[in-house]
Amino acid sequence: MTLVLGGARSGKSRYAEGLIEALPGPWLYVATAQAWDDEMRARIAEHRARRPAPWETVDAPRDLASVIRRAPAGRPVLVDCLTLWLTNAMLDEDADLAAERDALVESCRTAAGPMVLVSNEVGLSIVPENALARRFRDEAGRLHQRLAAMADRVVLVVAGLPMILKGEAR
């Protein structure tokens, strides 16, 4: 498992796609975004256009752990992105965030094939001014720490440049 972190427009998604495309296809792209407005629909369309066959896309804005568990054995999986999934879970007032986070971590630990997880590093800026934003930053940081601890490789992408934090470069 590889965890790819970076800021907005850092090149983390392209880098992660390249890691998966270096493996034999077909590849599974698990998308966590929801198209709430025209701008987000355009972003999603841009990402999809970059992924011709043999990519298969599965939308999983919430039940990410189940999608990972159901992925065929040996099939390379790319999840993009964990912070969008976290946002979706936090905005669902009925969600048991701790249980969903634990299920996600466990599904990653027991994944039946190679997996690359993409997420935004959100802890490099100022302390957010409101409680929800601070909670989001804290939850993302905790999730990243758990996944990084069990990942084979962790990469931070800045300005399109990958920096290997853990493991070896490919």
Automatic annotation (TrEMBL):
SUPFAM superfamilies: P-loop containing nucleoside triphosphate hydrolases. It comes from the Bacteria. Belongs to the CobU/CobP family. Catalyzes ATP-dependent phosphorylation of adenosylcobinamide and addition of GMP to adenosylcobinamide phosphate. It is an enzyme of class 2 (transferase). The keyword Cell inner membrane does not apply. Pathway: Cofactor biosynthesis; adenosylcobalamin biosynthesis; adenosylcobalamin from cob(II)yrinate a,c-diamide: step 6/7; Cofactor biosynthesis; adenosylcobalamin biosynthesis; adenosylcobalamin from cob(II)yrinate a,c-diamide: step 5/7. Gene3D superfamilies: P-loop containing nucleotide triphosphate hydrolases. Keywords: ATP-binding, Cobalamin biosynthesis, GTP-binding, Kinase, Nucleotide-binding, Nucleotidyltransferase, Transferase. NCBIfam families: PRK05800.1. The keyword Ribonucleoprotein does not apply. This is Bifunctional adenosylcobalamin biosynthesis protein. It catalyses: adenosylcob(III)inamide + ATP = adenosylcob(III)inamide phosphate + ADP + H(+); adenosylcob(III)inamide phosphate + GTP + H(+) = adenosylcob(III)inamide-GDP + diphosphate; adenosylcob(III)inamide + GTP = adenosylcob(III)inamide phosphate + GDP + H(+). The active site is at residue 47. GTP binds at residues 6-13, 31-33, 48-51, 80.
